[in-house]
Amino acid sequence: MVIFFILSVLALVFQTPFTIFLLIFGQIAIWVFNHYRNKDHIKSIKNTAKQETKVANVRADEAYDNLVKLINAIPSPLVYINQKGDFEVSNQYFNSLIKVDAESVYDIDIDTVIRQTLLDAFLNERQFVKQLNYRGIDFQVLSIPLMVEGNRYNGCMLIFQDITRVLEGEKMQKRFIADASHELRTPIASIKGMIEIMNRSNFNDEETRTEFNLQIEKEANRLEHMVEDLLLQSRLKSKQVYLEKTRFNLKQFFDSIVYEKRQALYHAKIETIINCPEDLVVYADQFRLTQVFTNLINNAINYAPDGTIEITAIDNKDRVIIEFKDNGMGIKEEMIPHIFERFYRGEGDRSREKGGSGLGLAISKSIIEAHGGSIRVESEYQKGSSFIIELKTDA
Ligand SMILES: Nc1ncnc2c1ncn2[C@@H]1O[C@H](COP(=O)(O)OP(=O)(O)OP(=O)(O)O)[C@@H](O)[C@H]1O
Ligand SMILES: [Mg+2]
User: Fold this and answer.
1) CATH number of the domain that 116 lies in?
2) What residue owns the CA closest to ligand 1's atom 12?
3) Of 156, 205, 315, 388, which is least packed with CB atoms within 10 Å of its CB?
4) Residue 305 backbone dihedrals phi, psi, to 5 degrees
């Protein structure tokens, strides 16, 4: 630039053909220089832009992959419906929910229940939460409309949450409250009735008074046991019971329980056989396990009199398998899935007659499960029942 300036000054001052030539030549040289410099510059800008686009594309691909991974990790059917009604993003659970290979809310191959919900969410552009039952599953559907700048509707997102178990739990809880209040109300009503009669001014029957007093004591004891049993079971279920585990000999344990119950067993004309290796040791809370086997013996006394109980224990590596078998009245097939439920009593009210409240097996199950073990039943109506318990032999 400086040279060009000097040349220009010289050309203007001297105005010779040589200086004028120099001036023209200099201008051409500068133009050529600038042209190539700009070309290189543009080229480098182009390259940089290309590289940046490439990086941006890679980033966009990564972000999309992450989004797909994320929505597939959500264990509920999820879909984003764009403003045209197309399923723009959806996870595998949504695809298996609608079953068909559909691409938009208008596809008539989608089952009416689901399609109606999708259309409702898409067309009404409003947020809602609703419940629906589809193929035996209870769903809670949440629809969220998506808005862009200017409050413009940009489609909606739907998530289908499986709430079958929650509803099941609610139903069970309601049933439990109904059963528990019924069971508690019965002895309370009978106590109140007897007290009312005894409080009448003209009541002077001493024999009935003695009888009523005994009956009231019996009902009060039943109530007390029931409340204790319920509390114990709920504490066991919420792991609030501390198990005092010790190592003890199983054969001696069975012998002592049968000895404790010898009178009741004798009256029920039940013979007991114990098949247990002499040296078999378990690690458990002996007091709680006594509750389990006392329940099983009480049941045998009530539902399998005039028969035989056979208790067999087998050492199976780190587990012990105990079979408690009777040859009594057995359990009807349709009753089997329910006998470990709270307050469930078999037909004929035989256990009610015996003062049972249907909590024995529910508590036994909770005790065994609190030990990390399992209990199940196999039974044939009119032939007998087998309760099979598995317990860990070690800690
Ligand atoms: N060994 C058995 N043989 C036949 N039926 C049985 C036997 N054990 C249990 N059942 C059936 O299962 C039901 C539930 O038993 P569970 O021990 O839980 O309650 P319960 O004996 O009726 O009352 P509770 O034990 O609270 O005094 C019983 O009412 C009975 O119908
Ligand atoms: Mg019982």
Assistant:
1) 3.30.450.20
2) 339
3) 205
4) -70, 170
